[in-house]
Amino acid sequence: MDKQRIDTFRRRLLDRRAELKALEQTRRASAETVELDQTRQGRLSRMDALQGQAMARAAAERAGAQLRRIEAALARCDAGDFGYCLECGEPIAERRLEFDPTAALCIACAQARETGG
Known about the structure:
- The chain is mainly α.
- It has a single domain, classed as Four Helix Bundle (Hemerythrin (Met), subunit A) (Up-down Bundle).
- Helix content is 68%, strand content 0%.
- Helix 1 (3-30) packs antiparallel against helix 2.
- The two termini are 28 Å apart.
- The relative contact order is 0.14.
- The mean pLDDT is 87.
């Protein structure tokens, strides 16, 4: 893959990282501890708040995992390994990288890992 194409993927990764970090503050506020004072809110409201808190925590975990994948992909860009499968070393299909620039495995290795083979 040529340098210009890798730079295009790098920009996409940097943009996505910036988006995720900007949303982090909003998620933190949603995941804060829910007060359980029944005089201030009813049982159903507390349940809704707890459910919202759990959803915010799950979203934060997914965003954290995505940030780690982005950082790893950026490191591969810097090392000159971007676009090559970490398992077999073969090039990852560009269409796969267009869909997910954080992809670290080619389709064959990803499928083999999924099926345990």
